[in-house]
Amino acid sequence: MDYQAVLDEVATRVAPEIGRGQVARYIPALASVELGRFGMAIADADGSVYGVGDWEVPFSVQSISKAFSLALVLAQDGETLWRRVGREPSGNPFNSLVQLEYENGIPRNPFINAGALVVTDRLQSLTGDASTTMLDFLRAESGNPELAFDAAVAASETEHGDRNAALAHFMASYGNLDNPVPTLLEHYFWQCSIEMSCRDLALAAGFLARHGVSSDGSRLLTRSEAKRINAVMLTCGTYDAAGDFAYRVGLPGKSGVGGGIVAVVPGRCALCVWSPGLDARGNSVAGVSALDHFTTLTGWSVF
Ligand code: DON
Fold first, then answer.
1. pLDDT at 78 over 90
2. Which of 39, 134, 244, 283 could pair with 55 as two cysteines, CB 3.0-4.6 Å apart?
């Protein structure tokens, strides 16, 4: 496969979609990002990486971090997490509160905000410093020691974080959190604020394409755990658009309101696309379209 030729063709085909949608405004520090940006990278399972457009420009990873926190918890803790969080699509927006009361404080899945808060709570209990553990992990897997938190984004989200605080307090009332809510929120906002480029993220997600094997050749996850993370990404990674994402793209994917999406072709490669214009469900308009073109051009999907 000539990855560079595929990326160039995807960039040409997606051009009319770039600039569509809206940047995330509920985190004011993200509202100033330029709408017309577009980048895409492919990291082959052997670690070689290719890119097009703004593929080396850092952006806010936001909810893409949830795939990595899930991996870190499963790696250390195995299956016990699933007593505290489900693995069914929610069919609701990523920051919705409504199901939590019906379902006794157990979030539907680890990628909606409520579920991600439970995962970060567990990572905090396991490591004593969830956000730094994640940053160190991402630096190692991407091979980029310069990766950093964006303090302005974390502060902006803290200031406007009433919804996440409500989710966390509500789950605490059901006994589904081990750490104090302010500690948990701090680590969650910091993990979401990490700045990475498409290149960094495609490399960092490589372990999901290599069936659980890290960039240094050691095993992070069992083959079965890697399969399970990919499965939850496919069914829940793009929230209430997961059905449409599976229909159009046909790959495990995890989006973030920074406009990035990571996708995985198990056994072959990991991809990351970035374009800040979001649809109503918080997924990048040009990003989903680029991945749709990618799987159509290559014929690579899990189906
Ligand atoms: O908690 C939040 O609302 C943000 N830090 C992350 C949300 C997000 O990226 C949803 N994904 N599309």
1. no
2. 39
